[in-house]
Design a protein that fits this description.
Structural class: mainly alpha
Largest sheet: none
Shape: globular
Distance between the termini: 13 Å
Strand content: under 5%
Number of strands: 0
Radius of gyration: 21 Å
Number of domains: 1
Length: 401
């Protein structure tokens, strides 16, 4: 009987994880394809000249720059490092990091699918608030000596930001669209491991972790406490929960959906979503780039900014009585049926095939070393292979049990 229960839960967990992939498949293709077009057709060289001061123009450009970039967390850190190396202010670099993981189109699409349009609006508003708060905190606490030493430590890196071109000419050329396919594939290569790990964890957590656990952790079972105390606790705890999952960027949206379905408050969910840059592997990457002092300083600024943003959002949305409620059940999201998701996946599978074809044509003409983002350790790769096996076996168990 215990074996039957284990197999049923194991199969249901794998089916739920696969359901998350199924629901989000077309969104990934659309998001990365649009991101590829922006990267291929938006000249960046001129913009970076105006990012060397901690003023509104510099921060605004960094925010735009980040929103037009890939949502891969490791790519965000590497690109921010390149900006610092070329003279961008650290405030601008942090704004870029937040924007490239919280304001990109592919993340917005996922939030819309899994949590609903209210959370998408909250994410956009909160992303801008988050950048404003972090910029202010760095400005008033600026450790000049540390950051100057960190700037000197940064190594050269080819991330494509040196490039300048006539976008009108490029968008009409075959080479320009080959580059779009190349950017699409490279973005996917940088992100697929985090996505696989995150979606698998979300599927198993949704089935195996009882609601009572989340209720205790986020004080949902403590109605005697004032609402503001519970919101504060949720905002403070959420970044640590995100860090404990080791999931970056896109991979944490399904788990945020699980939290929402289990009664976690708005402040906790937003704090969780914004904490993708605080996972230990990413803090370690920043330590490699800038040294541990600066890496921990950046993490500290991020933590305070995330908590304040979650609380501010919660306060504003509560005051206007517009707290988002996704009202979506995990079991509904992860269903397999012939609906719009099916047809969107068919259409965008063809788009992905075309992009891969263009990528291969691009590589035939360009002899180049592929950019190797930090974070692809042997342990992470081993984890990815293990999760693939767990999913395959789990689906077989679900089908034949």
């Amino acid at each position: 009987m215990e074996l039957d229960l284990f197999l049923n839960q194991y199969g249901a967990s794998a089916k739920t994880a696969l359901g998350f992939f199924w629901k989000a498949g077309w969104a990934f293709v659309l998001g990365y394809f649009v991101s590829g077009m922006i990267q291929a057709f938006v000249p960046k060289a001129e913009l970076t000249k105006y990012m060397g001061t901690p003023d509104l123009q510099s921060i605004s450009l960094s925010t735009f720059f980040g929103a037009a970039s890939s949502s891969c967390s490791f790519a965000a850190l590497a690109a921010a490092r390149s900006l610092v190396k070329k003279g961008a202010h650290f405030i601008a670099a942090v704004a870029f990091m937040f924007a490239s993981t919280n304001l990109v189109i592919e993340l917005g699409i996922l939030i819309l699918i899994f949590l609903g349009w209210q959370y998408l609006v909250a994410e956009i508003i909160g992303g801008l608030v988050l950048i404003a708060i972090s910029s202010f905190l760095i400005k008033i606490t600026y450790p000049g000596k540390w950051l100057e030493e960190a700037r000197e430590k940064v190594e050269a890196e080819d991330d494509g930001l040196e490039e300048d071109f006539d976008w009108k000419k490029r968008i009409k050329s075959k080479e320009g669209w080959k580059l779009v396919g190349h950017k699409f594939v490279m973005d996917w290569k940088m992100a697929w491991e985090d996505i696989l790990i995150g979606f698998t964890i979300a599927g198993f957590v949704a089935v195996l972790v009882p609601q009572s656990f989340w209720a205790s952790l986020f004080l949902a079972d403590a109605p005697h406490l004032p609402a503001w105390v519970i919101s504060l606790e949720n905002a403070l705890v959420a970044p640590f929960v995100a860090a404990a999952t080791f999931i970056g960027s896109m991979g944490n949206i399904p788990l945020a959906t699980v939290l929402d379905a289990n009664g976690v408050l708005f402040a906790g969910i937003m704090g969780f979503i914004y904490s993708d840059l605080m996972v230990p592997p990413l803090v370690h990457v920043n330590a490699k780039y800038y040294g541990w002092r600066v890496a921990l300083y950046i993490a500290g600024v991020m933590f305070v900014s995330i908590v304040l943003t979650a609380l501010i959002l919660n306060g504003i949305f509560t005051a206007f009585d517009i707290i988002p409620e996704s009202q979506k059940k995990v079991s509904d999201i992860t269903q397999f049926k012939i609906d719009y998701t099916f047809w969107m996946n068919v259409v965008f599978a063809l788009v992905a095939g075309w992009a891969v074809y263009q990528h291969k044509k691009y590589l035939k003409k360009h002899s180049m070393d592929m950019m190797n983002m930090e974070g692809g350790s042997w342990l992470k790769r081993l984890t990815v292979y293990l999760f693939i096996i767990i999913n395959i076996v789990g689906v077989l168990v679900y089908l034949f049990s």
